[in-house]
Fold this sequence. Notes:
Elements: H1 8-26, H2 32-38, H3 43-71, H4 73-93, H5 97-111, H6 113-142, H7 144-160, H8 163-183, H9 198-210, H10 212-242, H11 247-275, H12 277-300, H13 306-332, H14 339-364, H15 370-390
Amino acid sequence: MSAPPPTFGLAVLLTTLVALGPLSTDLYLPALPTLARVFASDAAGVQLTLSVFLAGFACGQIFYGPLSDRFGRRPLMLGGLAIYGLATVACVLANSIETLIAARFVQALGACAGPVLARAVVRDVWGSSESARIIAYMGGAMAIAPLLGPTLGGFLTVLFGWQSNFIVLLLIALLQGFAVARLLPESNVHRHAGATNPRQLFATFRRLLADRRYLGYVLTFSFSYSALFAFISASSFILVDRYGLSPQIYGMCFGLVVAGYVLGSVTSGRLVRRFGGDTLLVCGAGLGALAGALMAALEFAGVHSIAALLGPMFFCTLATGLVMPNAIARALTPYPTIAGSASALMGFVQMSIAALVGIAVGHGLSGGSGALAAGVAICTALAPLSYLVLIHRRPDPTPPA
């Protein structure tokens, strides 16, 4: 058995599977203030539909990675899409905020199959040398979902109600399930018989966490993403409630910020062969720290405007586009036989940190946009700090067998 050949069509399919997670949060962002009114909830309660989604996303990845190392990527991807579809139906039928929160948790358990397994497939098919470039281009293409999602979600919410966002997600999942069944070959040619053994699993995770370089890349990646998620979780309440933007205009503003991520990802894909993944990662982490500090400085200096929020955030997302693909590729490169487990642990740490940041920012929204600015500034500062403490000037070890 050999891995499938690297093709453009396979890359497109994997990109759509990775995009299902971001689309599941970004599409209904314009509806969050509406949900608060419909279910008589406060901003912190509605924001839990986002943070709980990330918590489910984190927990699910821990299982998908090792299971895919043992049984293959394809059957786990199909199972995840089936869970996602059933949970999305429950979201459509939810009649209370508590029911919606619970359904979102289960929905995330299905959605997380996409990114953790797609990253493992990229490592299976393209190998260590090309993974960063492919992940970067996938990231740029994947960003079309959050780029257009809030705008589409705004129109859907106004024209058809908040449930229409979840109906669209259900249709997308059905199409993806059909495409995976027909077009996704099995790529795991290094089946790990002991991957699902509890003792072996914990030993694998301990081995990964003991690798300071792996941990450094994971934390750099996670804090960079958490800054972006802080904006995702708080922006609709600030821009719609505080500045009075319509859901449609909010979606366009959100798309402008996400365009920075597209630019960063495409730039990384074009330059990674020339400059190397670590160089681009360091540049991105430094740029993010500067942009986050600027956002906080403007906020606490009393400069309250849409431009003061969106301008620095554009450069924060551009920085994330430079950091994420290179951190992912560099973290997974030394572990070809446990790529699923390594990807799963990375996703678990990423989503756990982001969920905690989202909850903290959500509880601080009653005091204005200061919580968002502080959250972004802290996360963007911790990203380069993680690299400096755990990776900088450490020799790149020989990849373990």
